[in-house]
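Protein Record: Sequence and Backbone Structure Tokens
======================================================
Tokens: labelled as protein backbone structure tokens, with as many entries as the chain has residues.
Task: work out the structure tokens from the sequence, keeping to the layout shown below.
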Amino acid sequence: MFLKKYRIFAALALCLILSCTGCSKDLILDGYNNLLHFTSQFALTPKKNLQGEKTEGSDTYTGSYTANYENFSGTEYLFGGTGLIREKGNDLTVTYKLKADSGSVRLYQTRGTDEQLIADTSASDTYILSLTSQDNYIAIECDDFCGSLQISVK
């Protein structure tokens, strides 16, 4: 819902840019990409609202997060963004350890409107996440969840 609003804002901003400048196609695409990256950060759960401690990396796609959940219900969008191209490359290494004591949990990534489950039980793993030119987020969805999560994205 929020993502749709910022896309409308981005499209309107792009139209304004196009009508006001005689810029090259590359310059316009770079500006649009930067606008997407900037506005997509607002889809992430603010640090003050997270259940755990987040250390930010070089951009919104990277960092680390550690949390202990006690009867938590809700969704936290931890890392990610939207853009045509990421300056630091489109492959990320994700390492996580999820411990599920009770309740339900889903650690997943979004790619546009698709969701890919990472884990929904106690598990740990490392994998490569390849970003696409659409919404790419890592999130945890909990329902009366007790457990912990440690995740690092580089």
In short: The chain has two domains: 2-39, 44-153.
